[in-house]
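Handout, section B. The chain below has 75 residues.
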Amino acid sequence: MTEARHGFAESLRIREELGYLVGTAPALASLADAEAEPEASRLREEARRLFRLLGGVPTWLARQLAVPAPGAATA
């Protein structure tokens, strides 16, 4: 898990340095999957914010960033 966290964090750093904003939200979402709470929730919320800012791009990310309904089971 530590290696996954490092890989996702490095991917995010490279995207930010290169100005590749569209790839930042997916990188944040992937990093959130490798983090523990409360950091995971914070990263997902930032990914949602960027996703909305970019007008829902990339479109495939919408499902991953959907906020679960209260009481919904999560895997």
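Note. The mean pLDDT is 86. Compare this with the example in section A.
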